[in-house]
Specification:
Length: 495
């Protein structure tokens, strides 16, 4: 079997046109693949699998290839009945971000060489992921157009075909259809996982796949979700930030002693209750709120956030998150990270109302960029002179008509098999955990999906899996979600 894989790999490698060159222009082939045999130890069990790295076309309505998406497909090789084997399509966000993040740090068979809290280490590299979900599901990591090695083939096609909330959902749904046919996976239970903007993407895909491709899912996993087009309004948006501020202040030991001595998960329910019962109506009342009432609310917000009462009053109880990142650790000479507030940065000057840069993102790019290039080009043998775009140009992006939260709700209503799980880090300031909870409340306003929706929180940030402890627990949560969302044999999809 290994010899056969090696032969296929060598023959396919020779056909990869991405290394071709003519007059200094690289020629992109939208349909390539190379196969390598691999194995990994997951939860003490040896898993043998094949890794397929390649491109698969995006077809237009005339069945002409207009782009090619790069993907990495991991298929366990000791499975005889593929019809019962779950298949997960994995997307990251941006928009304009490649699949590198979850691919090389979360669910895949390899993870970065980083420390236990997620900070870069040299020499750069990767190692086996003992917590990968490859024991229970096959995984496809997908790079949308202009990310990773994915490229547009037909330059006459308008960029609006790919770059926008609805355009992105439409062409990716068609591509998934093609993938299922190419690899004969139509019978498999199907799942989507998306991180950050990827949650917007997969929420919209859940409905689009049902209505335009007739593909029905068993589960959608939302990692650090966006607002999913669910309207908040200025006052609601302002109020919902407070629990994140409290979590971050607790981490940096900025809360009063009586709160600081409690565990984080004892503090947060108290802050959440205060947010919904008192902060939310107070901000909505605005100028109708008496000075005494306003001062009382500001004092408690200061108590829970590590930000002075006077600062809250100066901002009319609406403290911008950018100001919070600058202010919380100002007395120590640091800013805090946007996507993960455990990370610290140093600005040119301590004055100001926002950080100079995103401390956490620079750290992550430091960790991810060398290993993904090493892994794809050397370990998986995908030979190309194309640049791997960790972030690609997808501008202008049409953000109009974002109704993806409603799309997901409708997909759940129409498909009794469909389950949803949210995973959020308490220290994520870009897609904060309390807004993720708010999403679930609005998606299920009638309370009819309670047994098909779940929330999991972690003591880290946007990419919770970078922290060793959370890598284990977040993968285990996915593993259990998959097992619990698989229907019993011959169980009908009906209410």
């Amino acid at each position: 079997m290994i010899k056969a894989f090696v032969l296929v790999s060598l023959l396919t490698q020779l056909s990869i046109a991405t290394v071709a060159q003519s007059r200094n222009n690289l020629i992109f082939n939208p349909d390539t693949s190379i196969v390598t045999p691999q194995e990994v130890q997951v939860k003490g069990q040896k898993i043998t699998y094949k890794a397929i790295a390649g491109t698969l076309p995006v077809w237009n309505e005339q069945e002409k290839a207009i782009a090619g998406l790069f993907y990495t497909y991991y298929e366990r090789t000791d499975i005889k009945d593929r019809a019962n084997r779950p298949l997960i399509f994995s997307f990251n966000g941006g928009p304009g971000s490649a699949s590198v993040w979850m691919h090389l740090a979360f669910t895949g068979p390899k993870i970065l060489h980083i420390d236990d809290e997620g900070y870069p280490l040299q020499p750069y590299g990767f190692k086996d992921n003992p917590h990968s979900i490859l024991d229970v599901a096959d995984i496809v990591f997908i790079d949308p157009v202009n990310t990773g090695f994915s490229r547009i083939v037909d330059s006459t096609v308008p960029k609006s075909t790919f770059f926008g909330v609805q355009a992105d959902i439409k062409y990716l749904a068609g591509w998934i259809n093609s993938f299922l046919s190419r690899y004969q996976r139509w019978a498999s239970p199907k799942y989507l996982i998306g991180e950050s903007y990827g949650t917007t993407r997969v929420s919209g895909l859940a409905r689009e796949l049902q209505e335009s491709q007739w593909i029905y899912l068993n589960g959608v996993i939302l990692v650090s979700p966006t607002e999913l087009g669910i309207e908040r309004g200025t006052a609601t948006d302002a109020a919902l930030r407070l629990p994140y501020y409290a979590a971050t202040a607790w981490y940096h030991k900025k809360l009063p002693v009586e709160l600081q001595q409690k565990d984080l998960l004892q503090v947060l329910p108290e802050v959440e209750e205060f947010t919904m019962r008192e902060v939310l109506p107070a901000i909505h009342r605005g100028g109708q709120l008496s000075p005494a009432e306003k001062k009382k609310i500001a004092a408690r917000m200061a108590n829970y956030s590590g930000i002075a009462e006077q600062v809250w009053l100066q901002h009319n109880l609406d403290l911008p998150v950018t100001y919070f990142w600058k202010e919380l650790m100002r007395d120590k000479g640091f800013t805090i990270g946007r996507l993960d507030s455990r990370y610290l940065g140093i600005d040119r000057k301590e004055a100001g109302d926002r950080p100079d840069y995103n401390a956490e993102l620079n750290s992550w790019l430091h960790s991810f960029t060398p290993p993904i290039n090493m892994y794809l080009r050397e370990t998986l043998k995908y030979k190309t002179d194309f640049k791997y775009n960790v972030f690609g140009n997808v501008s202008p992006w049409d953000r109009s008509n974002d109704q993806t939260g409603e799309d997901l709700r409708k997909a759940m209503a129409m498909n009794p098999y469909l389950h949803v799980m949210v995973q959020s880090g308490y220290y994520d300031g870009a897609c904060d955990y309390f807004n993720a909870k708010y999403n679930l409340w609005q998606l299920d306003a009638a309370g009819r999906f309670t047994n098909r929706m779940s929330f999991k929180g972690y003591r880290s940030g946007h990419m919770m899996y970078l922290r060793k402890e959370d890598l284990a627990s977040s993968n285990e949560d996915i593993r259990q979600f998959i097992k619990q969302s698989l229907p019993a044999s011959n169980q009908p999809a009906k209410y």
